TrEMBL record:
Coiled-coil stretches noted in the UniProt entry, renumbered to this chain: none
Organism domain of life: Eukaryota
GO BP: any one term: actin cortical patch localization
UniProt protein name: UDENN domain-containing protein
Biased composition (Acidic residues): 185-216
Organism the protein comes from: Friedmanniomyces endolithicus
Bias-annotated ranges (Basic residues): 161-172
């Protein structure tokens, strides 16, 4: 099958167009065979003139094509139909239930209507949640809460659908001569959960993890967005009428329904009938989100890591082209055509490209009014609603900065930098170590405490860890306290000040009104001392007074671990209190002080909500890698990381072997490979290391010792075990298994390597990063940046080189900065391999944004390397011809 899209003219580093390549592509006819049926081949001519509304694609450079019309792996994979996150033929509803509750002076909170049927459970409890405390004092309020709805029937239906898809896979693979065992293996790693087009299989569906990862801890939550209105009416007993309307959805972007709820509740006040609910229910479920492409985990992270508004625009182009093909397209034979310039303008507007690919704009007609909504394209786990981390951080940072108050008591899991640990770090530690947390908002709207709870969940998750929202209660009250206390490590939002006086109910109290946090004097003590903490009290593992390398995370004076020799309450100071051993930690051993300074600086400079979320995501990623290094050193092994495992035998041939071994690729790489999981003989031992990169052995001791109590506290929590499960589940879908790309990139950035050492790292990266999926994993690595000595991401000379790119843009890491250094390596084979790698990155739909960010200096260097390579190949060919002729 073939995807026909407009041609994007290639531009070199000077901004000029490669007219020869453009003319070649605009007139060449490509015949591409389908992976599922080699007999069904279609020839299409690429459009010579791109429509005004659809940006064109770049041509295939020598980093991808072979110069003979054979598409590269990256190009060939794009021929598959793009799947939608929310297919038009899906039976899943955007909104499952609509509820209406009201307050009666005689009966209290009453549930008036549930449409289209009862939700189930205690109706009175639901009504109380929909009508929060003191709601009569405000004309309007919003609340959010979650329902753990039994999904046994839904799980049975899903199992039937999976069995049906498995039978289809077996039948289809059998037609291609593949065994049933191969079909079983493919099913085990397939991540598709949908219907319809997901039944079709391509050669690389093993890596399709674009659907949400399977939840190990239960069915998806039902998110409830609730609006409460109070209207003054002197004809009723209390002088006011209080009603609430809520929508129940499985989608975490429930904030998009706010304008619809505002209109619907006003209509319900005027016409309190079931028909009002039916109108809203039908309107929201008619919302068309089928033009939102499905992204895999790497693509979601890349999109979240960049502010570029046209990132992955090609996916929107392709899915629009599929839709505009109309009834002539089918999953097995999609007649994909681009929009015609002569098409009706209204029809073109219907399939218009988004102005910002981070969100899909749609319209919900309701009550004769078109309501615009913006749905996020890429949502990370534990992200619910439209909370603001900037607001949460500012609430607790401002009082702490103006008048620091030491925590009393302290706790080794929470106050990892002593009694003056920053409140946000204390909150992070409390979330990671599964303490009971309450956000109190006395005399504040319940929406404020709900947003704080949701923001806290995202803060500790970073899109990496799970298990916070499932045990979160964005709003609750005293009537639910018995049920609340049965939940270990809950995160709850309340407005009743009585919670502040019950210190046995919580471990950390966050007062939104005052901006202060309190650690309960009845919090569970740490006893006995964990083995990992005792490990760093032994000779040979004690932190040193100073780091041997400037720029390490423990560059300040450190004379030992304090307060770790005593048990129970005497551990209260963690790493920052006065200890019985006469040792004191000074400076910023954990790096948290510098990290929070960087976060506050980003807020002051108005970098935006996205930049702040990216900083905390990097903090969580660093923490998990530190924890893995901690376990491997202290306990000898870790389940948090899977070490590189090159196959003991040669890998099976790649389906793109012909393209991989093209002359152009052979010339640009000294040893091209056909599969990212290379054999051991092809990778030197020095590149098979993994894990967090420490500049020196002493810096490793200092940093792991500083984080010992925090890591030990995390190791017994549900987020820890969820992360272990997620690591194991995602490994079969990981494109590069033979090396740790993050580790190799960090070695280039953080260590002073010899030319031989850096050359081995560059060649290893170039060898395993060949196809589109491998490039995506590499972009996810470089997009995350490198953790520096200042507790944040190290700056680079290329930062700010170009706006709109995923790399090189301030607050987004260094992008391709450290890979670009390979263009200046003394060995020619390394320079040419890196040039080929950057060529493949440049032709990737997301990599082109990173390539723009490297600046013209690196772009010019790559051109010089390519010209030198071409000259060398040309000379070799001439000499070979002369030798043959002589």
């Amino acid at each position: 099958m073939a995807t026909v899209l407009p041609v994007r003219p290639n531009t070199n580093s000077t901004g000029t167009t490669n007219s020869t390549a453009s003319r070649t592509l605009s007139t060449q006819h490509h015949t591409l065979s389908s992976n599922s049926d080699s007999a069904s081949a279609h020839s299409h001519a690429l459009y010579e003139h791109a429509p005004a509304q659809l940006p064109s694609h770049r041509h295939i450079s020598n980093g991808l094509g072979n110069g003979n019309g054979v598409p590269s792996p990256m190009t060939r994979r794009r021929q598959r139909p793009i799947k939608s996150q929310y297919p038009a033929n899906s039976t899943e509803k955007h909104v499952e239930y609509i509820l209406v509750a009201s307050f009666d002076i005689d009966r209290g909170s009453v549930m008036e209507h549930q449409y289209p049927g009862p939700v189930g459970g205690d109706e009175h409890m639901l009504a109380e949640l929909m009508l929060p405390d003191q709601t009569h004092l405000r004309s309007q309020d919003w609340t959010i809460f979650f329902l753990h709805k039994d999904a046994a029937g839904e799980e049975d239906d899903e199992m039937k659908r999976r069995k049906k898809r498995r039978r289809r896979r077996r039948r289809k693979l059998g037609e291609d001569g593949q065994t049933e065992a191969g079909a079983e293996e493919r099913e085990d790693v397939d991540g598709d959960d949908g219907d319809g087009e997901e039944d079709d299989i391509d050669a690389d569906d093993d890596y399709d993890d674009s659907s949400d990862e399977e939840a190990f801890d239960g069915p998806p939550l039902v998110y409830v967005l609730n609006l409460v209105n109070t209207k003054q009416d002197h004809t009723v007993k209390r002088g006011a009428v209080v009603k609430a309307m809520a929508v129940c959805t499985r989608h975490s972007f429930l904030h998009i329904y706010k304008p619809l709820l505002l209109l619907a509740l006003e209509q319900y006040f005027a016409n309190p009938a079931i028909g009002t609910l039916a109108g809203l229910y039908n309107a929201v479920n008619a919302m068309d989100l089928s033009l939102m492409p499905r992204l895999n985990s790497y693509e979601r992270f890349i999109l979240q890591s960049s502010d570029a508004k046209d990132l992955f625009l090609e996916k929107f182009e392709a899915i629009i082209a599929q839709r505009m093909a109309g009834s002539n397209a089918s999953p097995s034979n999609p007649a994909l055509t681009a929009p015609s310039p002569t098409m009706n303008p209204s029809q073109r507007a219907r399939y218009g490209l988004p102005r910002d690919t981070h969100e899909l704009e749609s319209v919900v007609p309701y009550a004769g009014i078109p309501i615009p909504v913006k749905v996020p394209t890429a949502l990370l786990p534990e992200t619910v609603g439209d909370f603001s981390l900037v607001k949460l951080i500012t609430t607790f940072s401002t009082p702490h900065t103006a008048s620091p108050q030491p925590f009393a008591p302290t706790h080794p899991h929470l106050t990892t930098s002593g009694a003056l640990t920053h409140p946000i770090i204390v909150l992070l530690n409390a979330l990671l170590t599964q303490k009971r947390i309450i956000f109190l908002g006395h005399n504040l709207p319940s929406s404020d405490v709900a947003e704080a709870v949701l923001g806290a969940c995202a803060l500790a998750s970073g899109g990496v860890l799970r298990g916070f929202t499932r045990h979160a209660f964005p709003y609750t009250d005293l009537t639910k306290i018995d049920d609340l206390l049965k939940v270990p490590g809950f995160i709850a939002g309340v407005t009743n000040p009585a919670f502040a006086h019950k210190t046995e109910w919580w471990g950390l109290l966050c007062d939104l009104g005052t901006g202060r946090m309190r650690i309960s004097n009845r919090i569970e003590a740490v006893s006995p001392i964990p083995e990992g903490v005792r490990f760093f009290q032994q000779p040979g593992h004690l932190p040193s007074a100073s780091s041997s390398t400037a720029g390490s995370a423990a560059s300040t004076a450190v004379t030992g671990i304090s307060a770790l020799a005593a048990a129970g309450a005497s551990l209260s100071a963690g790493l920052g209190g006065s200890g019985l051993m006469g040792t004191v930690i000074s400076g910023d051993a954990t790096g948290d002080v510098a990290f929070m300074a960087g976060v506050l600086r980003a807020i002051e400079e108005r970098h935006g909500e996205g930049a702040v979320r990216r900083k905390f995501r990097r903090w969580v990623v660093k923490f998990t890698r530190l924890a893995a290094a901690f376990e491997e050193w202290v306990y000898g092994a870790s389940m948090l990381v899977i070490a590189p495992t090159p196959s003991t035998t040669h890998p099976p041939p790649s389906p793109f072997a012909a393209a991989d071994q093209s002359p152009s690729l052979s010339a640009s790489s000294p040893k091209p490979v056909s599969n990212s999981n290379s054999s051991p003989a092809s990778l030197p031992p020095e590149v098979l290391t993994h894990g967090y990169v420490f500049p020196t052995p002493q810096s490793k001791t200092n940093e792991l010792a500083a984080n010992a109590t925090r890591i030990e506290g995390w190791r017994s929590t549900r987020s820890y075990y969820n992360f272990v499960q997620d690591t194991a589940a995602s490994y079969p879908r990981r494109p590069v298994k033979s090396v740790d790309l993050q580790h190799l990139h960090d070695r280039l950035a953080k260590l002073r390597l010899t030319s031989e050492g850096s050359g081995a790292v560059y060649l290893a990266i170039c060898q395993v990063v060949r196809g589109e999926r491998e490039v995506e994993e590499l972009l996810a690595v470089v997009g995350g940046g490198v953790w520096g000595a200042d507790g944040g991401v190290q700056g680079g000379a290329l930062q700010g080189a170009a706006a709109g790119g995923g790399g090189g843009v301030g607050g987004q890491g260094q992008g391709l900065f450290y890979l670009g250094f390979g263009l200046f390596h003394p060995k020619v084979e390394v320079r040419e391999a890196v040039a080929g790698l950057l060529g493949r990155v440049r032709e990737h739909e997301a990599g082109r944004h990173f390539w723009v960010g490297v600046g013209r200096f690196v772009q010019g260097a790559r051109e010089r390397v390519e010209r030198a390579r071409e000259a060398r190949v040309r000379d070799a060919e001439e000499k070979a011809e002369e030798a043959a002729g002589g």
